[in-house]
Specification:
The chain is an alpha/beta fold. The chain is about 40% helix and about 20% strand. The chain has a single domain (about 1-225), classed as Glycerol-3-phosphate (1)-acyltransferase (3-Layer(aba) Sandwich), CATH 3.40.1130. About 40% of the residues are buried.
């Protein structure tokens, strides 16, 4: 019964539209702090770029973009994800369907190959793309997908973390955050990460680990800014310890 309901197009459109309006309300009633303060000036020279974030922590990211920042987001082909896709489009964000996976067989089955090409083509058109860094069912562990897209597109990866003081943590594999209105909010962007086109396996792994470190540092900082923990500011967008290298 539930499967028939959630795959009904009318129900999906209604829920997607409701979520879009809900997150608009959350964004408009949240007092956001952005770090670094000059992030928009910094990224202008690097457009288009690849925005990446953790699964389940991305619902408010459309609201940190400026009106002229065109973007498309990678969303899986799963039936439940159709609601997210509708919500994104209602918020003015285009969609690319497909997702990563831990095995080559699942990667093809879930549309990973076609989605990768679509992401690269979108960047070539001068449009930003957004995608989760971690692959399904393995939360907070950066996969190689975002690095591969950066390598073949020649565009930089910008790890982004957002947090709100008032939220509900859902009982899902990614512990998704349902942000609530009237909160303190924080958006933290790490420094861009470039991946050379001739990167070998070792260089790709090094880039993956760098995305991991910077996204973890950005997440900890965003949480600290809304009163959930303590973490130092990123130094020039880099994780603690990087600046000395």
């Amino acid at each position: 019964m539930w499967r028939r309901i959630r795959t009904n197009r009318g129900v999906q459109v209604a829920l997607g539209t409701t979520f879009a309006y809900y997150f608009k309300a959350v964004a408009h009633t949240t007092r956001f702090v952005v770090e670094p303060a000059d992030i928009y000036a910094r990224i202008e020279e690097n457009l288009p770029l690849i925005m990446t974030f953790w699964h389940g922590q991305h619902f408010l990211t459309p609201f940190v973009m400026k009106p002229h920042h065109k973007a498309k987001v990678l969303i899986s082909r799963h039936a439940d994800a159709e609601i997210n896709a509708i919500a994104a489009e209602k918020l003015g964000v285009g969609t690319i369907r497909g997702s990563g996976a831990t095995s080559p067989r699942d990667f093809h089955r879930k549309g990973g190959v076609s989605a990768t090409y679509a992401l690269i083509d979108t960047l070539a058109e001068g449009i930003n793309v957004a995608m989760t860094a971690d692959v399904p069912k393995i939360a907070r562990h950066v996969g190689k997908g975002v690095v591969v897209v950066a390598r073949h597109s020649g565009r930089p990866i910008v790890p982004i973390a957002m947090a709100t003081s008032n939220r509900i943590t859902l009982k899902s594999w990614d512990k998704a955050s349902l942000n609530l209105p009237f909160s303190r909010g924080a958006a933290v962007a790490a420094a861009p990460i470039w991946v050379p086109r001739d990167a070998d396996d070792a260089a790709i792994e090094a880039a993956r680990l760098l995305v991991q470190r910077r996204l973890e540092a950005a997440t900890a900082r965003a949480e600290a800014l809304v009163g959930r923990g303590s973490a130092p500011a990123l130094i020039d967008g880099r994780a603690p310890g990087e600046a000395a290298r």
